[in-house]
Amino acid sequence: MFGWAASGPLFHFSDTWQLVINTSTTIVSFLMVFLIHDAQNRDTAAMQIKLDEIIRAIDTAHNALLDFDQLDQKELAEFRKHYERLAKEARSDLRLSSSGAKILNRVEH
Questions:
Q1: Is there a contact between 95 and 82 (Cβ–Cβ < 8 Å)?
Q2: Dist CA 34 CA 40 (whole Å)
Q3: CA–CA gap between residue 84 and residue 58 (Å, rounded)
Q4: Domain residue spans in the chain?
Q5: Residue 55 burial (C-beta neighbours within 10 Å; 0-12, 13-18, 19+)
Q6: pLDDT tens by residue, 76-87
Q7: What's the mean per-residue pLDDT of the chain?
Q8: What is the rounded CA–CA span in Å between residue 102 and residue 35?
Q9: Is the whole-model pTM more than 0.70?
């Protein structure tokens, strides 16, 4: 970068001189997209393995959820509805208890 800037007067700041840096930065940016994408894929895969291990290790967890990421959108929506119902029931149960009502009031307001 500094070499390119320093060589400007030598090339009289020509169009070719500008094209060199523009092309170089475009190529570097293009390659960085692939590097970032690869890093994100590895991070996601590692996180999925960790979550799978947590599910496997907890006795009350459903091991059927281990390949959850392989389900299609319709199946995921069905599971989402199931867990939303469970959450709604849990909040209802919590409202019935006096300590739960206090907690929910703090969370909701």
A1: no
A2: 10
A3: 21
A4: 1-70, 71-109
A5: middle
A6: 889 889 888 988
A7: 82
A8: 49
A9: no
From residue 73, give the alpha-carbon distance in Å to each of 43, 52, 67, 70, 84: 22, 20, 14, 10, 16
Residue type, 53: E
Give the Cα separation of 36 and 34 in Å (integer).
5
DSSP labels for the chain?
Answer: -HHHHHTTTTTTT-HHHHHHHHHHHHHHHHHHHHHHHHHHHHHHHHHHHHHHHHHHH-TTS-GGGGGGGGS-HHHHHHHHHHHHHHHHHHHHHHHHSHHHHHHHHHHH-
Angle at 51 between CA 36 and CA 48, to 5 degrees: 30
Task: Kindly report the backbone phi and psi dihedral angles of residue 49, in degrees, each rounded to the nearest multiple of 5, phi listed first.
Answer: -65, -40
